[in-house]
Fold this protein.
Amino acid sequence: MCDRCSGVMRPADPERVRAILFDYDADPGRFLANVQAVAQYGLAGDVHQAVAERAVEEAGGLALDLGCGEGRLVRELCKRGVSVIAYDLSATMLAAVRGDRVRGDATRLPFRDRSFGAVAALYMLYHLADPRAAIAESYRVLQPEGLFAACAPSRYNDPELAMALPPASPSTFDAENGPQLVADSFDEIEVQCWDAALVHLPDRPALALYLRGRGLSEAEIADAVDCIATPLTLTKRGALVYGRKAA
Ligand SMILES: C[S@@+](CC[C@H](N)C(=O)[O-])C[C@H]1O[C@@H](n2cnc3c(N)ncnc32)[C@H](O)[C@@H]1O
């Protein structure tokens, strides 16, 4: 049995807050492996549909998708007739998105105050050293009563893979610290947490794909698939945080 898979859970390191590596131009295949693994082996939908529906029901006007990636939320909004600007720092990710696109940093938005009815920042604020700047910019560009949505995994996500993944440690925006970060800028917040068996990996290739999506190297994946039994059901933990700007 290799060191990684000795079966001993490595202790959490709550002091070490880190921004998650930005690899979308250097290694776009890593994120696409994550998208593919969740699409193929997920047992329930992700947050994108719910956020799009809420934007339709509760926020009028133009939407802004910060860190849009390959456009999952953009597609959900377009299907529902919402006009949206896709915004991302990665040229590689933006190239995959149809419609209005702007390349830039979420911490400095090139838009006027009160331009949008809804702003989303799904699974992206943990890439920022200080997500408060992007949250404050989102507040600035929202209209009164505008809706903000952000989400992130928990630092205790995927406990079944604890022996293969780096030790649990806080990111700059995760399910534990994210609600307070949004509450610090917004007038009202609402938090929806998940903690459930949401991914089922039937075999070793599925586990390998999932671990590629989690950023493990080829050697680490080879070690892990030798040591971790499949089929394997993963407990996904995370939070979706809505923020509302006052009238
Ligand atoms: C995990 S992906 C999430 C994509 C999409 N929001 C989704 O839910 O599928 C994170 C995205 O955030 C983008 N990103 C990271 N840092 C950024 C920044 N400072 N400004 C804008 N986009 C950023 C990345 O390029 C990437 O496309």
Residues 1-12 have pLDDT under 50 and may be disordered.
